[in-house]
Amino acid sequence: MRARASKTRLVGIRCFQVPSRNLNAKEYIDLIDWQKCVLTEPPITKSISDADLESVVNVPNILTLVPCLACCARGLPRALLWRLAGRRGGEPGEYSLDEAGYVGGDGDNAGDSDPGGMGMVKSDDGHVPAGHKVMVAVHLHLPTLMYLAVRMRQGRVARQVARQADMMRVWLLLVAAVACVSPVQAGRILFLSPVASKSHKNFFMGIVNALADHGNQITVVSAYQPSNLRKNVREVVLPDLDVSRIAPNTSDSKMTGLLTVIREIPGICSDALEKEEMQNLLTEEFDLIMLSAAFSDCFLSVVHRMKVPFIYVFPAGLVSPFSDITGNPSFPSFVPIKFLPFTHPMTFTQRAVNTLSEVIYGIFNGHLTRRYNECRRRGLCPEDMPSMHTIRYNSSIVLINSVKTVDLPHRPIVPAVVHAGGIHCQPSQPLPKDLEDWVQGAGKDGYIFFSLGSVVTPSSMPEKHRKTLVEVFGSLKQRVLWKWNKDTMEDLPPNVRLGKWLPQQDILGDSRLRLFITHGGLLSTMESMYHGVPVLGMPVSADQENNMREVENDGWGSVLLWDDLTPDTLKEKIQFVMGNNEFKTRVAHQSSVMKDQPQHPSEVAVYWVEYVMRHKGATHLRCPALDMSWYEF
Question: How would you label 340-359 residue by residue, b for 16+ Cβ within 10 Å and e otherwise?
């Protein structure tokens, strides 16, 4: 009826006109503007009057028989009738579907006299022989049938367009994948971390695993057995080099622990270099050396022997006196030295002490570097090797364990310093079953996790400290999970569980954890931030007090020094941190900032390591300050 009312009356042969298409459509139905489609009348209705068509439109469920209109009833399959009529069969006296799925009468004779396969249609007036020329109106009026016919046609066109678009997307993805393939071939890398703690190795292995996943072959030299075997990674273990034997305990002063390290480390480094396992590696070929920046200067002789570029890897941030190896300026006026308990902003007195301390630490570091010349006396370093001071200033880049956006206070950084902080952090996994059962027993009160890290031997702490911890932990309604290096403890409270090894990140990521009591090592601090857990810091040595002061200053934890440890102070601090909702809000924000990076730290580390291999070093990133004397600078 719309076609007759329009100005596009059919003249001659009726041809289907494809409407304009909208290739930006998200749904098939939007591919066509149906209101603008050109409508033409089908030839089969030309002899039907307007009144008859209107009767079909206005009176549902009628059967109209029109002579001279051929129709093969078996050409209407069941599926089409189901979709058009919205049901399986017709009303009594109208039509029904036989078992083959075609139109037929509702009696037993439907289709019986149809040798040509035309079927039988029955009306209220009686039977019509099969093959009679009829038109069937079934529930849906004629314009709707015409509309659906157009839709079916357009659906086929749309599917064809969609298939072509899908094929184009596939080809584009393949081209992009080929274009993104790095031209760098897998490199052979020697990673030297002979004198380091287990926690330092956790950071190093984050870098190693990322490089291995990128196809590089890495040989790792350390004092610790591998926790698992990994493709493209070979670990060479140097026995009897565990630095925990010289680590300070909770009763040592910070200066005592530092002097012990300065006295012992150069000899340990030479011992590591002398090991047969290490000497055997000197005959192999590598494309790059990665060297732990702390306590490994005697291994600069390996860099000299192999004549390949090398990269320093530092398990902390860019702190004095190690910042000088990149030529990065120090800013003692607002960046506190990690070994001092200062935070920004500092008072005038603190700035003066901080500046003087940086000068003193620089002198100490120079003295320590000269002590590494012991390897020359033991015949482990080549005679033609320049001074270690000269070699250490020729690293291509330095990878540091720092997240730029949360490393406060912010300071200028030279291009050769690459931030890879948090590369060891990872989402938590379900707790082991035995530990999970124990945690469930804590109920709604939750539990507390206490760990002094991997360097300090917990059982070496003074007995007065141990008894204070036992007394306070036993008085809490929370359960306490305590990392301890022995299987048992005589006076262990029933709510306390010991563990020699505990899955720290899985614990920190557990929503039932109420508090993390930590020694304040950088890796533990970063893991706490990553998982959003407030902390109570009980620092032992090195940079730990400074790390915890920064946490306290940033508003998501508190500090308790061992000299101030009593049952009352410990319990007060525990309740203070657990009951402070501002701490939880602040650490959740810091966690969000830490994770919101343009690239994952593993991608950053891989890019810059392979960058150095591609360019056979990175002397073009070298800061000019490295070639200037102190008075020239």
Answer: bebbeebeeebbebbeebbe
Distance CA 566, CA 568 (A): 5
Helices (H), 275-371: 276-281, 300-306, 348-371
Q: Check for a shared fold between 188-423+601-627 and 433-595.
A: yes
Number of Cβ atoms within 10 Å of the Cβ of 626: 17
Which H helix or E strand runs over 310? strand 310-314
| Pick from 417, 429, 506, 424: nearest CA to 201 | 424
- In the chain, where are the structural domains located? 2-150, 188-423+601-627, 433-595
What DSSP element (H or E) covers 575?
helix 567-578
Q: How far is CA 377 from CA 7, 301, 323, 372, 382, in A?
A: 107, 13, 29, 10, 10
Q: Cα(421)–Cα(424) distance, rounded to whole angstroms?
A: 8
Judge whether 523 and 202 are in contact, CB under 8 Å.
yes
Q: What distance in Å separates the CA atoms of residue 503 and residue 391, rounded to the nearest whole number?
A: 39
pLDDT, one tens digit per residue, over 84-124 is 444 333 333 334 434 333 334 444 444 443 433 333 344 44
Structure confidence at residue 358 as a pLDDT band (50, 70, 90): confident
Q: Which residues pair with 400 in a beta bridge?
A: 314, 419
Which residue type occupies 183? P
- Cα dihedral 494, 495, 501, 503, rounded to 10, equals 150
Q: How many CB atoms lie within 10 A of CB 279?
A: 11
Q: What is the 3-state secondary structure (H, E, C) of 320-352?
A: CCHHHHCCCCCCCCCCCCCCCCCCCCCCHHHHH
266: confidence class by pLDDT, cuts 50, 70, 90 = confident
Give which of 372, 380, 430, 424 is closest to 402, Cα–Cα. Answer: 424
Write the pLDDT tens digit of every residue in 526-567: 999 999 999 999 998 878 998 999 999 999 999 999 999 999
- % of the chain exceeding 90 in pLDDT: 46
DSSP β-bridge partners for residue 122: 127
Write out the two tokens for 213.
Answer: 């996943």
Residue type, 498: L
> Which of 3.40.50.2000, 3.60.21.10, 3.40.710.10, 3.90.1170.40 would CATH assign to domain 188-423+601-627?
3.40.50.2000
How many degrees, rounded to 5, is the angle at CA 351 between CA 346 and CA 355?
Answer: 145
Distance (Å, rounded) from C-alpha 206 to C-alpha 422?
A: 9
| Location of structure tokens 């830490």 | 594
Fold topology of 433-595 = Rossmann fold (3.40.50)
The tokens describing 417, both together, are 């310093």
Structure tokens at 615: 């360019």
Single out the residue of 308, 294, 309 nearest to residue 200, CA to CA: 294
SS3 at position 331: coil
For residue range 167-190, list pLDDT tens digits in order.
666 555 554 544 444 444 689 999
The pair of structure tokens assigned to 352 is 């003066």
The token pair that represents 142 in the structure block: 């004629």
pTM, to two decimals: 0.69
C-alpha to C-alpha distance for 514 and 510, rounded to whole angstroms:
9
* Other residues' Cβ atoms within 10 Å of the Cβ of residue 95: 24
